[in-house]
C-alpha cells in the first residue's frame, strides 16, 4: 500500500480523497493555486504544495507542476478527483513515465472511452445495448441523410469528442439534416478540435440512468447498481438518487451483469460509470465516464462502501474488498448539489461566506469544503457542497432531505438551496416521475429560466 498520495484537485472532492487516505493510514498531499492558499483541502491535508497562479490552466491543469509536487513530497500516487485531469490519458502516461501511479483507469481505457465512437464500438462488441444509429463515423451529409432515412427521424448528430452538450444537434426531419449535421461538425471542430460525428435515433423522453462499475484490473469487476440523474439543467446534474425510482430489481441485475462482465472482459481498473438512456423499459448505452463521479456518494450510501478507498486499494495492486454477492442495496439515497449560483439564471455567485452551518443527524452527509469566513474564488466551478441523505426507503430519504435542507445555512452568497425546497413540493419529484426534460420545463414554467 502507498505511504503517501497526492490529490490533484480542490474543494469537496479533495477533502473526500484526503478522508479516505487518512482512514487508510496514508499521508495526503494537497496541491493548490495561489487563490486557494486558505482553502479547506490545504488545511486538511497532511502536506501541501502551491502549484501556480489562480487560473486552472496554470495550476490544477499544469502537469509539470503536479509531477514536481510529487517529486518534492515523495508522493507515490496521484488521485485526480473529477474534472481537471481526471480523464486525461496523456497525464496518466506521464505519471507512469515518472514511476508514479495514477489512481484510476489505464491511459488506454481513458482514450477508448474519451472518443464516443470508439467507446460505442467497444461497448457494442462487449454486448452492451446501444442506441440504434450509424456504424461509426459519418463522413458526409449524403451519408447522414441516408442513415436518417434508414433509422427514421428524429435523429441526433453527435460529435465523437463532444461533452457537456456541445457538438450535439437534433434533426427532427430530413429537412433539418444538413443544418444539424454541419452545426454538430463545426462545434466538434471548434470546441474539441475534432469534426468527426456519428448519428443516433433521438430518444424523446428518456431517463438518464448510469451504472456504477468497479474493476480490479485483473479480470474481476462488479456493478453497484444505478443512479438516476435525469434532473439536469444544461447538462449539469442537480439532483441524483439511487436506486432509480423506475428500475426494478431484475432490470438492475440484468443490465448490471452486462456492465460488470464488459468491464471484467477489458480488465478495467477502478471506478467507472456506464451511462444509459432508459426509455420504455430498455437501456441504451450512450457514453462511459472513466472517473469517480460527483454523485458517487448516493451509491456509497445504499451499498455502504467507500469507493475512494477501493480505488486506492486496486491502484496499489490489492483486491477490491467486496464481491458481487456481498453487495446488497440498503434503502435509498439522494444527493442535491449546492452551487454558489443566483436563481433564476444560475449565474455564478462567488464571494465571502458569512455564516455556514452543515446539517447533521441520522442519514445525513454533507460533503463540502466550506467554512465560516471562507471566500469562494471566482476561478473555478460553482459547486460548494453536496448534501446526501440516506433513508430506509425513498419517502424517508425525501423527508430527511427536506429536514436537512432546513438546517443548512450558507449565508453571504446566493445558492441553489431554495431550488431544492421548491422541488420537494413537486408531486413528480415526490413520486419519482421525471425524465431528462422535466427540470428544464419546470424551471421555464416556475422561474422563467430560458
Ligand atoms: C441523447 C438524447 C436523446 N437521444 N441521445 C446529452 C448529453 C450527452 N451526455 C448525451 N445527451 C443526450 N443524448 C439520444 N440518442 C438526449 C440527450 C440529452 C440528455 C441526456 C442525459 C441527461 C440530460 C439530457 C438533456 C438533453 C439531452
3D architecture notes:
There is one protein chain. The protein is α+β, with helices and mostly antiparallel strands. It folds into three domains: 4-85, Rossmann fold (3-Layer(aba) Sandwich); 132-201, ATP-grasp fold, A domain (Dna Ligase, domain 1, 2-Layer Sandwich); 207-446, D-amino Acid Aminotransferase, Chain A, domain 1 (2-Layer Sandwich), CATH 3.30.470. It contains 15 helices and 22 strands. The strands form six sheets. It has an eight-stranded antiparallel β-sheet with strand order 13-12-9-10-11-14-21-19, sandwiched between helices. Strands 3-2-1-4-5 form a five-stranded parallel β-sheet. Strands 7-6-8 form a three-stranded antiparallel β-sheet. Helix 4 (89-97) runs antiparallel to helix 5 and helix 7 (141-151) crosses helix 8 (174-192). The protein starts with a strand and ends with a helix. The relative contact order is 0.11. The chain binds ligand MV4.
CATH class designation of the largest domain: Alpha Beta
Find the structural class using helix and strand composition: alpha+beta
Helix proportion: 25-40%
Rg over C-alpha atoms, rounded to the nearest angstrom: 22 Å
Q: How confident overall, as mean pLDDT?
A: 97
End-to-end separation in angstroms reads 51 Å
Strand order, largest beta sheet: 13-12-9-10-11-14-21-19
What CATH architecture of the largest domain do you see? 2-Layer Sandwich
Strand proportion, as a percent range, falls in: 25-35%
Please provide the count of β strands. 22
The named CATH superfamily of the largest domain: ATP-grasp fold, B domain
Largest sheet: number of strands, sense, barrel closure? 8 strands, antiparallel
Amino acid at each position: 500500500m502507498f505511504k503517501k498520495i497526492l490529490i490533484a484537485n480542490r474543494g469537496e472532492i479533495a477533502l473526500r480523497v484526503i478522508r479516505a487516505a487518512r482512514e487508510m493510514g496514508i499521508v495526503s498531499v494537497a496541491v493548490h493555486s495561489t487563490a486557494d492558499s486558505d482553502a479547506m483541502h490545504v488545511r486538511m491535508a497532511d502536506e501541501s504544495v502551491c502549484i501556480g497562479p489562480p487560473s486552472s490552466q496554470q495550476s490544477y491543469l499544469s502537469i509539470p507542476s503536479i509531477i514536481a509536487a510529487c517529486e518534492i513530497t515523495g508522493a507515490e500516487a496521484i488521485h485526480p478527483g473529477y474534472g481537471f485531469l481526471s480523464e486525461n490519458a496523456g497525464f496518466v502516461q506521464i505519471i507512469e513515465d515518472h514511476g508514479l501511479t495514477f489512481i484510476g483507469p489505464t491511459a488506454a481505457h481513458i482514450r477508448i472511452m474519451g472518443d464516443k465512437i470508439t467507446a460505442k464500438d467497444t461497448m457494442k462488441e462487449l454486448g452492451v445495448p446501444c442506441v440504434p444509429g450509424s456504424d461509426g463515423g459519418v463522413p458526409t451529409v449524403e451519408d447522414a441523410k441516408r442513415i436518417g432515412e434508414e433509422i427514421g427521424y428524429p435523429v441526433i448528430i453527435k460529435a465523437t469528442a463532444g461533452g457537456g452538450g456541445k457538438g450535439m444537434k437534433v434533426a427532427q426531419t430530413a429537412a433539418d439534416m444538413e443544418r444539424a449535421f454541419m452545426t454538430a461538425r463545426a462545434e466538434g471542430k471548434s470546441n474539441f478540435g475534432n469534426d468527426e460525428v456519428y448519428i443516433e435515433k433521438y430518444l424523446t423522453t428518456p431517463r438518464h440512468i448510469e451504472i456504477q462499475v468497479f474493476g480490479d484490473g485483473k479480470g474481476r469487476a462488479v456493478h453497484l447498481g444505478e443512479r438516476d440523474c435525469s434532473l439536469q439543467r444544461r447538462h449539469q446534474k442537480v439532483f441524483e438518487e439511487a436506486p432509480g425510482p423506475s428500475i426494478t430489481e431484475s432490470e438492475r441485475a440484468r443490465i448490471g451483469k452486462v456492465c460488470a462482465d464488459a468491464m471484467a472482459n477489458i480488465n478495467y481498473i477502478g471506478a467507472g460509470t456506464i451511462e444509459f438512456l432508459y426509455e420504455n423499459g430498455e437501456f441504451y448505452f450512450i457514453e462511459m465516464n472513466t472517473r469517480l463521479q460527483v454523485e458517487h456518494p448516493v451509491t456509497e450510501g445504499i451499498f455502504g462502501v467507500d469507493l475512494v478507498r477501493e480505488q486506492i486499494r486496486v491502484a496499489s495492486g490489492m483486491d477490491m474488498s467486496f464481491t458481487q454477492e456481498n453487495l446488497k442495496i440498503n434503502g435509498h439515497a439522494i444527493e442535491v448539489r449546492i452551487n454558489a449560483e443566483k436563481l433564476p439564471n444560475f449565474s455564478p455567485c462567488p464571494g465571502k461566506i458569512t455564516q455556514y452551518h452543515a446539517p447533521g443527524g441520522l442519514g445525513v452527509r454533507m460533503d463540502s469544503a466550506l467554512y465560516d469566513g471562507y471566500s469562494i474564488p471566482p476561478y473555478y466551478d460553482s459547486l460548494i457542497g453536496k448534501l446526501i441523505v440516506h433513508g430506509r426507503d425513498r419517502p424517508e430519504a425525501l423527508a430527511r432531505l427536506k429536514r436537512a435542507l432546513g438546517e443548512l445555512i450558507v449565508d453571504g452568497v446566493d445558492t441553489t438551496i431554495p431550488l431544492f425546497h421548491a422541488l420537494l413540493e413537486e408531486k413528480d419529484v415526490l413520486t419519482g416521475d421525471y425524465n431528462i426534460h422535466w427540470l428544464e420545463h419546470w424551471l421555464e414554467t416556475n422561474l422563467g429560466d430560458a
